[in-house]
Amino acid sequence: MVTPRSWPGCQGNGLALSDLTDALWLRAPVAVPVERLRELVGGGRFRAALRYDGEDLHTVLNLAAAGNGLVLLPVSAAAGVPRRVPLIAPRVVHRVEVLYAEPAGQAAALAAQLRQPPSSTPPGTSARGS
């Protein structure tokens, strides 16, 4: 979690999300949504202080540093940020999925390979004897 420099909760080993239900939060596409925070805690206000529609992580970090609201980000996104506070409860998992399309020719060749029966010939050897 990224907080302003002067935020009083910056001391200690970490904070529980349930202790932050009345804090003001940033609403940004790169951050955990305020609605998800409510789900994780089972309620709470989690008021959005500012909405930023951009995708620039640097801007989100600067908005949090300037006191415009707290922001919950994956650890990798907040690496090197001096004013980050670990979230100790609940455990929030950040998952990224990548979907891509194979070029048509490659997909057809792969499908044809998968339809072939397995070979008893070890890879890199000839099927004919020497």
Q: What is this structure, in a nutshell?
A:
This protein has helices spanning 34-41, 57-65, 104-115, and strands spanning 15-16, 24-27, 47-51, 87-89. It has 130 residues and is an alpha/beta fold.
Structural description of this entry:
The protein has 130 residues and is α/β, with parallel strands linked by helices. The chain has helices at 34-41, 57-65, 104-115; strands at 15-16, 24-27, 47-51, 87-89. The chain has a two-stranded parallel sheet. A two-stranded parallel sheet has the order 2-3. β2, α1 and β3 form a beta-alpha-beta unit. The radius of gyration is 24 Å and the shape is elongated. The N and C termini lie far apart (65 Å).
Tell me the layout of helices and strands:
Elements: E1 15-16, E2 24-27, H1 34-41, E3 47-51, H2 57-65, E4 87-89, H3 104-115
Parallel strand pairs: 1-4, 2-3
Record keyword descriptors for this entry.
4 strands, 3 helices, two-stranded parallel ribbon, alpha/beta, 130 residues
Most strands sheet: 2 strands, parallel
Class by SSE composition: alpha/beta
Helix content: 10-25%
Give the distance, in angstroms, between the N- and C-terminal Cα atoms. Answer: 65 Å
Give the helix tally.
3
**Can you tell me the overall shape?**
elongated
Task: Write down how many β-strands occur, each being a DSSP E stretch of 2 or more residues.
Answer: 4
Fraction of residues in β-strands: 5-15%
